[in-house]
Each structure stands twice: as C-alpha cells, then as structure tokens.
Design goal:
The structure holds two protein chains of two kinds.
Chain A lengths: L2 H9 L3 H23 L2 H18 L9 H30 L2 H9 L11 H18 L2 H11 L5 H8 L3 H22 L11
Chain B lengths: L6 H8 L5 H13 L1 H17 L21 H7 L6 H16 L4 E5 L2 E5 L17 H21 L5 H29 L7 H24 L3
Antiparallel strand pairs in B: 1-2
Bound molecules: zinc ion.
C-alpha cells in the first residue's frame, strides 16, 4: 500500500493508517535525526515530536505525493531547533571548561595508525568516530551529507526538502566531505584497511 | 575554467548524477589536472568511510489512537511508555496522586492548576462540622478527575521543563499545605469523619512519589 493510499485512509478517519506510516518511516527518520544530532535520546524525542506534528498537520498537506519530502522537512525543522538550543547550552558550558584540555583532545589521533590491525574491535568503534566527526562540521553541510550518503536522496529531492539552490547543495557537499576527509585523516580513519565491511 | 569550477561536477560524478556532456568535460580536465583527479578519489574514499555507520533501530512503539475513543485510562495507556512521557508525566503523576489522596481538591484553568490539600476549609475555626465528609471527598475526587483529564488534553505539547517546574511548584504547595494539615490532624484527628489516619499515610506515600518524580525530572533536565 502506498503512502498516498494510507494518507487517504487516515484522512477518512482510520487512525491505524497513520500508524502504518509511522512504522514505515520511523527507521529512516530516526537515523536521519540521530546522525544530525548525534544523541540517541534526543533523537527519540525529536522523532516523536516529528510524528506528532505530522499527525496534527497532515490534514493540511495538499499534495499527498509530497509526503516524504514534507516529513523530512518537519524532521529537519525539529532537528534545527534542537541543535540551535543545544548549541546555545554547549556554548555556555564551554565557557566553564578548560580550553587547553579541549585543544589537546582535538589534536589527539583517535586511531593510532601504528597499532596492530585489531579490525573487529575497530569496526565497532568507527561508527562512534563517525558520529563525532559529523558533529564537527557545520550543520548545513552535515544535513546534505546525511541526506546524500545515508538516504540516497537525489539532488532535486534535497532541493525540495531544504528549499535551497542545487548549486548550493553541491558546494555544501563538496566542502562538507572535504572537511570530513580532513578529520578522518587526522584520526587515521582514511586507511583502506579500517573500512567497515557491511 | 579554473579548478573551482569543477567542484560541483566532481560532486555530480561522485554521486553519479552527472550529464554525459559534463562527465566528458570533467574527465578531460582531470587528465591534465592531477589535483582534481585526486580530489575525486579522496572524496570517494571519504564517502565510503561514512558508510561504516550502520542504521540503528529506534524501537519507539509510538501508536496513535482515535481521539474520540479515549478515556483517561486509554490516555494513560497510550502515553504510558517512557519516551512519550515528558509532556504527560506531570499529568500522569498528578493522576497517581489523586488516586492516592482523597482529601485533595484540584482546580485547573488557563494552563495553571491549583489544589487544596487542607483537611478543613480555609479560614474557618476548628469546628468538627467544618471537616470534610465522605461525600465531600467523593465530590472532590470526581472534580479532580475532570481537572486532570483537562490537563492532559491541554498539555499534550508542553515542554518537559515546564512540566517539571509545574510539578515542583505543586510539590512546594503540597508541602506547605501538608504542614498545616499536620497541625490540624494532631489537634483533632478523632473528629475527622473519613479515615484520616489511613488518608494521612496515603498522603505520605503520594508525597514520596512526587518527590521521586521531581528528582527524576531534574535528573533528566536537558
Ligand atoms: Zn583541476
């Protein structure tokens, strides 16, 4: 059953149809939010708010074929607000912290290239490094990287969600990936033998 | 064309969304520009490294039920799970309180709620006839249910912080009124019609639950 048929059913009063939409979309949306915010508890809250918002405003969605775009838009707005609020908190926290400690931990190489190739242990840790690395690049670059790399969205789909020009999307990808590459190299994550086997 | 002009084409090539003409243009440039050729290669590696983060499972168990079928019990069931609890935890905790205390009266309007926990009407002398009767308490219980269900409906989007504040205000209010109850009870325990002693124990239990709740809220404060 397509999303459009489910939306139609929902608007005719079948609440269960919305639950099917939730069941269908919760995993992709959760992973989008999780990579955006890098915090699983916050991601669950934001995911819930996204669905609640969708539940309430679905009757106002005119073009039902835009459902997934619209859902990503809601999730993106929620993430943006959450990130803004958290950044504000973090900045206040950072004032209290020792700058020297922070710089040192940033300079440290997480994966030591000279250490023995303990691949299985490394694989489980790589995801954690990726989480941290994504949080280090600007939000607007991070979001397009997530959409492209983890959701396989086309440039025009990202354009529809974020409402920004195609060229802007491409240059954010270019600079975002370049920044990620730099971080990976610093951390020793740019080697072939470190790659996770899916 | 300068190398910067090929940045977007490199991205298009990377994600295989490039037109045949542009691909030819890029390939031609890269034959004479090792920098751009290397760039495409390293970005490809970066992209592959990113895929080492597999998808996670949210296990959310979020279920929507039709509004008109909801009773208080349904609402509790519906919002009983942890993740949903933030907005509703205040209301849920309040319901638990109401179940535990018979001698409380809750009124709710315009997003604020007040409650009366005193065993006697305020401002009156300590006369036996001024103590609450069983019928009064039953009446208050009914009013409390109505007030709480209104709180649930109106607060379903409230921030958890606001809820926590509301609950801690309630707690303070509760504690001060309980102190005055203490005096009343110690002076005239026997004259109260309706199982004061038991009720008093229940009040203590409810108060403990409330303290735990407020502590929990401050522990999860963002
Ligand atoms: Zn070049």
């Amino acid at each position: 059953m397509t999303d459009e048929i489910l939306i139609d059913k929902f608007l005719k009063g079948h609440t269960e149809a919305f639950n099917t939409l939730v069941w269908r979309w919760e995993k992709p949306l959760y992973n989008f939010i999780l990579r955006y915010l890098g915090d699983s508890e916050q991601a669950k809250d934001v995911l819930q708010n996204t669905f609640i918002r969708a539940y309430k405003s679905l009757p106002r969605l005119k073009d039902h074929s835009r459902f997934s775009t619209w859902l990503y838009q809601i999730a993106h707005n929620q993430c943006h607000d959450c990130w803004k609020a958290r950044r504000h908190d973090n900045l206040n926290m950072a004032d209290l912290e020792n700058d020297e400690d922070e710089n040192q931990s940033e300079r440290k190489t997480i994966v030591d290239p000279d250490s023995g190739p303990d691949k299985s242990a490394l694989n489980s840790e790589i995801a954690e490094y990726l989480r941290r690395a994504l949080l280090m690049i600007p939000e607007e670059q991070r979001v397009v990287i997530i959409m492209k790399e983890y959701h396989g969205l086309k440039f025009i789909e990202i354009e529809a969600i974020l409402q920004i020009p195609l060229n802007t999307i491409k240059s954010r990808l270019y600079y975002g990936l370049s920044a990620m590459q730099k971080i990976f190299r610093q951390w020793g994550l740019d080697r072939e033998d470190l790659r996770y086997e899916m | 064309m300068k190398c910067e002009d090929y940045q977007n084409l490199i991205i298009e090539e990377l994600y295989d969304e490039i037109s045949p003409d542009d691909r030819l243009k890029l390939m031609t440039h890269m034959r004479t520009c090792p920098e751009c050729a290397t760039k495409l290669k390293t970005l490809r590696t970066t992209s592959q490294t990113l895929h080492s983060w597999p998808d996670a499972d949210p296990s959310l168990n979020l279920t929507f039920v039709p509004e008109n079928r909801l009773t208080i019990r349904d609402r509790l069931k519906r919002f009983g799970f942890r993740q949903f609890a933030y907005g509703f935890a205040g209301a849920c905790a309040a319901i638990l309180l109401i179940l535990a205390i018979g001698n409380t009266r809750i009124t709710y309007s315009d997003g604020r709620f007040e409650f009366q926990a005193s065993l006697r009407p305020t401002g009156t002398a300590l006369q036996p006839e001024n103590y609450l009767t069983k019928a009064d308490l039953e009446q208050f219980k009914l009013e409390n249910y109505a007030a709480i269900s209104q709180i649930i409906i109106e607060n379903n989007e409230s921030e958890r912080v606001r809820q926590a504040l509301m609950m801690s205000d309630l707690y303070k209010d509760f504690e001060s009124k309980r102190q005055s109850d203490l005096q009343v009870v110690s002076q005239a325990l026997r004259q109260v019609n309706y199982g004061s002693e038991q009720r008093f124990n229940q009040t203590d239990r409810a108060l403990n639950a409330l303290i735990q709740y407020v502590n929990y809220q401050s522990a999860i404060k963002p």
